[in-house]
Structures are given as structure tokens and as C-alpha cells.
Write a structure and sequence with these properties.
Blueprint (H helix, E strand, L loop, with lengths): L2 H23 L21 H10 L3 E4 L3 H7 L5 E5 L7 H12 L3 E5 L5 H6 L3 E4 L10 E5 L9 E3 L6 E5 L6 E8 L12 E9 L2 E6 L7 H4 L4 H9 L8 E4 L12 H7 L1 H21 L17 H14 L3 H19 L9 H11 L3 H16 L5 H16 L8
Parallel strand pairs: 1-11, 2-3, 2-11, 3-10
Antiparallel strand pairs: 4-7, 5-6, 5-8, 8-9, 9-10
Helix pairs in contact: 3-4, 8-9, 11-14, 12-13, 13-14
Amino acid sequence: MSKRGKLYITLIAITVLTIIALEMTKPKQINWFESYALHHKIPFGSFVFKEQLQRVSKKVKLVERPPFEYLKSNSANGTYIFYNDVINFGREELNSLLDWVDKGNTLLVSARDFEPMLLDTLHLKTLSVNTIGNFNNEYKVQLVNPRLDNNSFKYDKPTTFYHFNKIDTLKTNVVGFIDAYRNPQEEAIKDSLVNIIKQPFGDGTIILSTFPQAFTNYFILKTPNHNYTASLLSYINTDEPIFVDTYYKSGKKFYTSPMYLFLNNRALKWAYYIVLICVLIYIVFEGKRKQRAIPIITPLKNHTVSFTRTIANMYYEKGKNKDIAKHKIQHFLEYIRNTMYLQTATIDAEFIKNLAARSNNTLEDTETVFNFISNIEKQTTVNNIELERLNTLIDNFKSHNQWKTKP
């Protein structure tokens, strides 16, 4: 290898090692994925909410099945809690939930926005919160009940929120407000936008919230935001069973891909990256196109002579001397046309004279050959002696030819 090649390899190796050292020493990046999964400790998981809820109530049950399937196989009463970025029940599942609420149970659903069928059933409409002037994309939320901690609570992650711009004022109770965080001096929300409502449905109650982040680790662990979540839960009866949905969650309960194990472990992740880098280096330096070995192909043998001999022997053994003589004569005439360039359609004295001159044979020898050929053609049968005589005359005639013959 040349000195320049060794230099390039050294520079690449130093660069790769430097990148690996920098990556391994830098702090681990925060995962901001909005999973809402109860087992996730990332900012937008809800591990803290699950732990605190189980401290408040001893009757918390985590439901890992779709609500339609769970309610069909269980007749327990209580409160069913759903919260996620997006929740779409579907017609049949929503009807089963509403039937369950109608029997005296409580349904709490928290999502950014809701499916049209649920909003139409409760005579509600939603609209996104106006963010004009909210340059930092910060929001504040507040509960209405003065007996609760009704201070405003700050949420400082950019996103899009919705509020209820149309409600059934005869049946709907306003529970909480949301608004853009514009003036830090304001402690309460003015010109409030309704984001949490409570509405009776049959013998039960439905609570809707457009702020699912209230149940995440990021919001609860920022003091005093935990008071907001605790006050919201005061609207449900903690003495009855509380069913917390784990089916409608953006985060997975378990990971089926083996790559998750590699990428989630720092050492395995960098081992995987180093292997990829080594493969790339190999491709760059060793992946050049090389000449493949050219296989030796044995050329096909010319079996024309063997084939001709086989056919001739077959004719000879079967006693077909006339056919052999006929082919011999045709081949001889073809030889004259190809080597001496004479037409053989008419064989007369002039033709024989020209042929004798071109073939370096005497006129008498040439006449002898063609006289014998004429006699053979007139006969119906040819014996062995005559066939051998014909072959001898033709071979002798060709031996005197001074013209170059085709191979």
C-alpha cells in the first residue's frame, strides 16, 4: 500500500475514534415522545400518575384490553379513565361505554380532541386555542371550583390545544379553563377558554378534558402542578373501582423488535455502530470491482467429418452404392463450383476444356472422369468396384488442382 493510502486510513481511523469518544461522553438525550404509557418514566409517560393513583385508591385496575371487550366480560361499576394524545373509540365501542355510563358509572376521557360522534352525543364543539401573541407556545390551565386549588398552572411545551367553543349550558358544568400564557403577572385566566367539562349522562357522569398532559410525568413533577392533577381527580369517587386504560396509549407496553435492546443499551448501541462503521470502511477500501476469473469454455468440436463418415458407412453397409455414388458426384460438382468457379449445369466439350485448364489436369483425364460419371448416372445399380473406381478418379483429379481450396 502506498504512503498516501496509509495516511488516509490513519486519518479515517482517528476521525472515527474521535466521533465515538464524543458520542459516548455526551449526556443521554431526553426522549420527548408522547407515550402516555403507565410504565414509562420518560417526560411524557405516566409512571408517576399510576404510582400516585394507587396510593390514593386501593381499587385501581389497569385494563389492557379494548373497552368494548372488557365491559362485555365484566359488569363491575366505577370510573373508567382514558387519556392519550388521540383516542378514537368507534361507533360500537362508544355505544358500549355510553351504556355503561348510563348505569351510574363515570367516564373520564382526556385527549387533544375528540371524535365527532362523542361530541355530537353531548352537544359539544371544539376549536383550537389561538396562539397569536404566544411566542413561546406556553399555556396555563386552571380549575373553576373555588374550594380547590384554583391557581393557574403553567405548561411550557409547544403543542396545539383545543377548547370547547360550544356546550349545552343546561346540562354541562364547566370544570376547567385553558389559555395561552401571555402575561407572567397574571395569576388567573381571563377571557377563559373551557377545556374541561362535566356532564350527566343517564345515571352516570362523563368528564372530558383537552389537556391529557396533566397525567404525564413532566407536568406532575413540576411543582405545584401536581395539585392540578389531584384536584381534577377529586371529581371521581376513589372509593369505587377505578379502571385505567392501557390499551389506547401511543407508547408500547413491550417491544418486539430486537433492535430496541441494542439501541436502548449504551454499550450494545455503540458496538452496533462500530460494526456498521467497519463494514463501511471495508466497502470503501475492499469493495472495488475486481476482475472475475474467466471460465475456460471448451469450443464445440466440428463433428461434420465424423457425421459424414457415419452416414457413409451406414450406406455402404446396407449396400446402397448408387446413393453413395450420387452423393459423391454432387459433392464433386460442388467442389468445382466453389474452387474453380465454373457452372456445372451444362457439361459439354467447352466445359471440360475449361475445367482441365483450371484444374491442371489433362484433357484426356478430365474426359475420363466425366465419361465415367455419365455412365454411373445412367446405371440403376453400382457395384463395389465401380464405386471404388469413381472415388479414385475424383481423388486423382483433385490432387492435380493448383487452386486454393476452401477449408
